[in-house]
Amino acid sequence: MATPDFHFKRCSIVQEGVTHPVGTDAVLLGAWADIAGARRILDIGTGTGVIALMLAQRTENQRGIQIDAVEIHPDSAMCAGRNFAASPWADHLNVFETTIQNFAEIADNQYDLIISNPPFFSEKTKAPDETRRLGRHTATLPPNEMLAAVNKLLTPNGRFVVVLPVQEGWRLCESAVPAGLYWTLIAEVRGRREKPVERLLIEFQRDPYPFRKESILIYEDGLRYSTQYQELTQDFYL
Questions:
Q1: What b-and-e string marks burial along 201-220, b requiring 16 or more CB atoms within 10 Å of the CB?
Q2: Nearest to 159 by CA among 139, 182, 141
Q3: Which of 10, 57, 156, 199 has its CB surrounded by the most CB atoms within 10 Å?
Q4: For residue 42, which phi and psi values (nearest 5 degrees)?
Q5: pLDDT digits (tens, 9 = 90+) for 166-176
Q6: How confident is the model at residue 216 (pLDDT cuts 50, 70, 90)?
Q7: Rounded CA separation 168/47 (Å)
Q8: What is the Cα–Cα distance from 77 to 49, expressed in whole angstroms?
Q9: If you count DSSP H runs as helices and E runs as strands, how many of each does the chain have, helices first?
Q10: Residues in CB range of 237: below 8 A, 6 or more apart
Q11: Is 114 in contact with 90 (CB distance < 8 Å)?
Q12: 30 touches 8 (CB < 8 A)
């Protein structure tokens, strides 16, 4: 069955052939990440390109913005390229079909903001489908290799922002310290008020202070989005 296009207010996102269609994690990350002072942005594992497109919209009134995206899966990279070309921000967007490990070796520039919805399944919980496994299994992007690439590509005052399940998120916080990266902001995401925290949105910087926590609730009751989530995503959803 073909995956239908995903429609935002300002652009549509073709999803056919990608490892992962647009999901709540990506939308949250693209809306939540701090873009202040970010002129060069890198999206690791862009998939459909949704996060890069959201950041392009959020920075469209700023001069000198360049957003690069890296994607290992050929069909996803091709899909992201089509979505970029069809968007109002095509001149600011580039996609590279390669691994972030290789990209870090060949890149000439550093980035003010690096963002990623990275793979998180462990060896014991591989995704059953090979295509989905490529996007979700940590063998394709071990945390230590991702952090090494980020450390090389991030400007001295830059930010690295990710979304991960809780356990994987805290593990990444621990692993980041030897790489000289420290979490400065964590948003704990709950689907519903009575449910446990399901995701962590994490911002890393080279300076460990200050740091703070906040929380995000997606659904108020039933399937009605919370006021907080609506305000966070109101520039995007139809």
A1: bbbbbbeeeeeeeeebbbee
A2: 182
A3: 199
A4: -125, 130
A5: 999 999 999 99
A6: very high
A7: 20
A8: 8
A9: 8, 12
A10: 8, 9
A11: no
A12: no
Q: Determine the pLDDT at residue 122.
A: 40
Is the domain spanning 20-231 CATH 3.40.605.10? The answer is no
**Token duo for residue 4:** 């239908």
For the record, the structure tokens of 78 come out as 């091709």
Residue ranges per domain, the chain? 20-231
Question: Could you give the CA distance from residue 233 to residue 238 in angstroms, rounded to a whole number?
Answer: 10
The backbone torsions φ and ψ at residue 236, rounded to the nearest 5 degrees and listed phi first, read -120, -50
Q: Which residues pair with 94 in a beta bridge?
A: 68
Q: Which two tokens stand for residue 11?
A: 């652009």
CA 53, CA 12: separation in Å to the nearest integer? 10
Q: For residue 47, what are its two tokens? A: 């998939």
Largest CA distance in the chain: 48
Is the pTM here over 0.85, yes or no?
A: yes
d(CA 174, CA 130): 29
CA 212/CA 187 separation, integer angstroms: 9
Give the tens place of pLDDT for each residue, 48-80.
999 999 999 999 999 999 999 999 999 999 999
In this predicted structure, the answer to whether residue 125 has a pLDDT above a threshold of 50 is no
| pLDDT tens sequence across 94-122 | 999 999 999 999 999 999 999 999 977 44
- Two structure tokens written together for 182: 């420290």
Confidence band, pLDDT 50/70/90 cuts, at residue 138:
very low
